[in-house]
UniProtKB/TrEMBL annotation:
InterPro entries assigned: SDR, SDR_fam
Family classification: Belongs to the short-chain dehydrogenases/reductases (SDR) family.
Organism: Candidimonas humi
Pfam entry (one): adh_short
Protein name as it appears in the record: SDR family NAD(P)-dependent oxidoreductase
Length: 262
């Protein structure tokens, strides 16, 4: 299937590890010109070099903090200078720790909101004028199923994800007349360093060990296993493509059937 992504300029935040890294690789293999962004400069540079070797085309690296509005502006300016106007934005940077209300201080709430909700919004706001002027653009927000399946043990993360579900659909409505398509993807348990961290945090909260916490999470997935990053990246590449030209204002669960709500 030709996704018609040759020459498209894509920025993937949180692209040095896990799902973001897999998405960047997928887009690069489809012919997009990709820049990955993350806070750790060395790790991001190493990841870009590895992706370049795998894809057979150059993937650029840029260090940036998505909690800092000026850093976001700097990242996007570097992308434009190196690659040209941004056609595709994949918002993936940002994660929230496990925690009940009593175990989640204000500083954690503020960080979660600033990094993921405001970070996604600021990145989108930065690239939208040029997308709308060209009447072509794709914004894909990597969110999470906790936005519509609340859990007491993931209080802040679920609230932020719920806000992002709303933001994604509202932004899609605003941008649709300009042919800028906005979608969300809600991953379930995916085998990444981030997943290992969540399992450890869940075990600490429940007073069990990591193996038991992982087994409990897997038991909640009808397919009976944890997903792999490439099972997310393929869908994201499709949503970024011309083949998905009539898909906007929706959020897709990729979780092995774990989300059971209407």
């Amino acid at each position: 299937m030709d996704l018609q992504l040759d020459g498209k300029v894509a920025v993937v935040t949180g692209g040095s590890l896990g799902i973001g890294n897999a998405i960047a690789g997928e887009l690069a293999r489809e012919g997009a010109r990709v820049m990955i962004v993350a806070r750790d400069a060395q790790r991001t540079s190493d990841a870009a070099q590895e992706l370049s070797q795998q894809a057979g085309t150059q993937v650029l690296a840029c260090s940036g903090d998505m909690m800092d509005p000026s850093s976001i502006d700097c990242v996007m300016a570097q992308a434009r200078e190196a690659l040209g106007p941004v056609d595709i934005l994949v918002n993936n940077a940002g994660s929230s720790p496990m925690g009940t209300i009593a175990a989640t201080p204000d500083a954690v709430w503020e960080k979660c909101l600033n990094l993921k909700l405001l970070g996604y919004m600021r990145c989108a706001r930065n690239v939208l004028p040029e997308m709308r002027a060209r009447r072509w653009g794709r914004i894909v927000n990597i969110i999470g199923r906790s936005g519509h399946q609340p859990r007491a043990a993931y209080m802040a993360g679920g609230a932020v994800n719920a806000a992002l579900l709303n933001f994604t659909l509202a932004l899609a409505e605003e941008c649709a007349p300009d042919n800028v398509l906005v979608t969300g993807v809600n991953p379930g348990p995916i085998q990444t360093p981030r997943w290992d961290t969540l399992v450890s945090q869940s075990a600490a909260l429940s007073g069990t060990n990591a193996n038991a916490a992982n087994a409990a999470a897997v038991a909640s997935v009808p397919l009976g296993r944890v997903g792999q990053p490439h099972e997310i990246s393929g869908m994201v590449a499709f949503l970024c493509s011309e083949r998905a030209s009539f898909v906007t204002g929706t959020c897709i669960n990729i979780d092995g059937g774990g989300t059971r709500c209407i």
